[in-house]
Amino acid sequence: MIRLADRLRGGYIPCMSLPRAWPVVFGLCLVAATASPAARAAPRRATCATTALRDLPDFARGTTGIGDRPASDDGTDAFLDDDTLPLRVHHLAGGEADATLVLNELRRAWALQVDGAGFAPPPADDSGFDAGFDNNGGSPALDVYLAPLPAGVGAVTVSGRDVDGDPAHDRRPSFIVLDPAQSDDVLAAAAHHEFQHVLQFAIDARESVMWFEATAVAFEVRGRPDVTSWQDALPAFQQQPQAPITADGFQFAPFATDDDLRLEYGAGLFALYLDDVHGTGDGTFLHTLWQEAAGLVVDGDVDVTTNTPDWLTALAARADVPALLMDFATWRALTPPLAVSDDGPAAYDLPAGTGLRGQRVLLERLSGTLRTTVPSEGPFVGGCQVTSASAPTAGPATTPVFVHAESVDGHALGATIVAVRDGLATTSDASVGPVVDVSADVDAGAELLILVCDVSITDADADPVFAPVRLSLGTTPYVGEGEGEGEGEGEGEGEEVIDCGCGCDQSSSSSSSSSSTGPAAGDPRGMRKSLYAVGFFVGVFGFAVKAWRHRRRQRLYQKKP
Ligand SMILES: [Zn+2]
């Protein structure tokens, strides 16, 4: 609750979907009302508001002020049309130079996403059905408006109505609004990002927030690899390895250990991994998953009988998801300071601060005592508990490390040990099952991450569920013993030493620990935040609506016999 208020005050619009978006109605109004000229000139962070606006009722869209087509009253808005492609850029704000820049980027996006990756072209917005728009922008072409947006929002794609009522998918035409009051590079990258949203809406508007944003970020990177603004969201994603890979920031907010919850944008790293490692690097694999999730191309056992977010089901028809999740966990671990030149996301030259957060331990003091993990470290279903350590430089040439993990709930786990020294990464064998054991002899001076992941996730739209594991980390093989003392207890804030009950010191500079499984009532992180009335109301309302939404969705997605 408090975190949402803080983000609204900071001008950041979190991504939310359907009923979750109700709070953002208030948030957007608040932001719009408080936007200052200075903020307009230099948004703190230009954020795509597409998934926040998605599916808002028409009357609620009106209150946000960004759901309607921007247009002057006299209808004399200047625009540029492409000579051959159905693209029209209206420049209500910014000059013709901005419009030319955006049109050029849209041509490039078309080449990459339609001609290259195989997405269908943007649907016309006046093809004999009620698209739900006041007008069609003067032509059937895709309309892109350069116009002011509320502070903190750099771009938005506004979708219309479902074109055919087919229950298997929800295909919508849409238009784009880009605020030209941002740098040329960010504006250009936003054009690629929003163009992808247009193509997504044309396939199925009901996919999950994370999948919408993660794939849009991936195409933003493909379109403008020289622009690094997408990396701003990576620390948020990498600081929350315990979160489900499918989660968006709003879903995970009650459990998060960080205030900057742009999980769904940081998950662009996962979309890039899918495209690089399981695809051909040109977006065709991402397009395939979108298509198969919508049931437009049936391949394998993809469920198209109900329109739920299905991208994970589509992926499962093509890949061993538990093995893939473990492979991705290892891949995302090879980020600074553990980056290497020949593995992981090396091609993206990620900056410091994008490393995977882990509970810090002293390797030589690991006792092997069994303890049960707590929510702040995870794993949640579809996430990883991460431990980080440095192998001693003095003493023996190698230090043996033994990991034993048991899922309390009998879920499938995966475990592996990633060690990096002198720019070379080594990974232990990965083990997958309800009880896993892995080990490695770690070279002196190596940095290592121990990953224990719950790989049992099957639902791309599931709410986050904490899935505790009984975990033993030792320098000798696990032989079985009773529960350790001090299980999961943590206290204090900031730089801290956590008694983890395993005879080790765990320090974490970025997280605190809690033995509660709930959303941190009385959380000291939250207590540090100042309350203010509007934000508080927005948050309370949001959680009430979240409960309602959950019940509604259960009905919506209930399979018919
Ligand atoms: Zn977006």
Description:
- This protein is α+β, with helices and mostly antiparallel strands.
- It folds into two domains: 2-227 and 283-319; 356-526, Sandwich (Jelly Rolls), CATH 2.60.120.1050.
- It contains 17 helices and 18 strands.
- Strands 1-5-6-4-3-2 form a six-stranded mixed beta sheet.
- α1 packs across α17 and α2 (22-34) runs antiparallel to α17 (533-556).
- The chain is elongated.
- The chain starts with a helix and ends in a 5-residue tail after the last helix.
- The model is unreliable at 1-45 and 483-561 (pLDDT under 50).
- Bound molecules: zinc ion (ZN).
Q: How are the SSEs ordered, and which strands pair?
A:
Elements: H1 2-9, H2 22-34, H3 37-41, E1 47-48, H4 50-53, H5 58-64, E2 79-81, E3 87-91, H6 96-116, E4 142-146, E5 153-159, E6 174-178, H7 184-201, H8 209-223, H9 234-238, H10 249-252, H11 263-266, H12 268-278, H13 284-293, H14 311-316, H15 321-333, E7 359-360, E8 371-372, E9 384-390, E10 398-407, E11 413-421, E12 424-427, E13 431-433, E14 435-443, E15 447-454, E16 469-474, E17 496-499, E18 505-508, H16 524-527, H17 533-556
Parallel strand pairs: 1-5, 3-4, 4-6, 7-9
Antiparallel strand pairs: 2-3, 5-6, 8-16, 9-15, 10-14, 10-16, 11-12, 11-13, 11-15, 17-18
Helix pairs in contact: 1-17, 2-5, 2-17, 6-7, 7-8, 8-12
